[in-house]
Specification:
four-stranded antiparallel beta sheet; alpha+beta
């Protein structure tokens, strides 16, 4: 059994914290921390949908993922436009969008668009999974506020969603990889699961050599445990630790002139 640098068990998640409404302009936001990985997920809503959905009486949800220049040990360049965005950011943005659309009743939303902005403040492995989990928390808060403000006709959230990573290093199956583990992994997987236990997406690859179905079963089992532990945390009273900040202005006023 490999000894993890932070002393965790092989099937143990990193310590988690979640703060909401750290910043005041989005409809809802969550600062989610998984170990040393810290992501900020903000939710906003606007009237109108992309051209391919106009007139179809359904809504849309899209996501944007980006890493701040100093989120990693070596500063990275900013993406200034969609033209210059790197492929990894685009791929993760699409993953987050797919994950969140799976739990939203877009027909009930009507011709409105939900935008999820996920910014990595500090990266230590598992940024995409942290963004999915944090975005799901923020979206639940936003949808509740929209319903209370009568900006949507009903509860548009059908479920919750969370994500975890797992991998194999020197024959050991490890849950929730940090950067050092992820950079030396033999096989790396991400599992996106809803609150009902349904699989939304599985991403994975063998970095060194093919893995057996037996090893994949072990990865799946430890990921399932991690997802169950994650939902237990999300459903706990202490999941959102920061009290709501005073809103800068009401949601109703925000959309009066749009």
């Amino acid at each position: 059994m490999i000894q993890r640098i932070d002393g965790r068990r092989s099937d143990q998640l990193r310590p988690m914290r979640a703060y909401y409404d750290v910043y005041g302009y989005s409809d809802a936001s969550v600062l989610f921390e998984a170990g040393n990985t810290k992501v900020h997920c903000a939710v906003s809503r606007s009237y109108g949908v992309p051209p391919f959905l106009k007139g179809k009486k359904t809504g849309w949800l899209t996501a944007e993922y980006a890493m701040l220049p100093t989120a990693t040990g070596n500063r990275t360049m900013r993406d200034f436009s969609a033209v210059t965005r790197n492929g990894r950011a685009v791929e993760i943005s699409r993953l987050i969008g797919r994950a969140l659309r799976s739990i939203v009743d877009l027909e009930m939303l009507g011709e409105q668009t939900i935008t999820i902005d996920c910014d990595v403040l500090q990266a230590d492995g598992g940024t995409r999974t942290a963004c999915i989990t944090g975005a799901s928390m923020a979206l639940s808060i936003a949808a509740s506020r929209w319903l209370k403000s009568k900006l949507v006709p009903g509860n548009i959230i059908r479920d919750r969603v969370a994500a975890v990573s797992a991998g194999i290093i020197k024959g050991s199956v490890l849950l929730d990889l940090n950067y050092q583990e992820d950079s030396t992994v033999d096989a790396d997987f991400n599992f996106v699961i809803n609150g009902s236990g349904g699989i939304i997406e599985v991403q994975g690859t063998a970095e060194q050599a093919p893995i057996s179905w037996e090893d994949f079963s072990k990865i799946r089992a430890v990921s399932e445990k991690g997802i169950n532990d994650l939902f237990a945390y999300l459903n706990s009273d202490g999941a959102l630790e920061k009290k709501e900040s005073v809103p800068l202005f009401s949601l109703k006023n925000r959309f009066m002139n749009t």
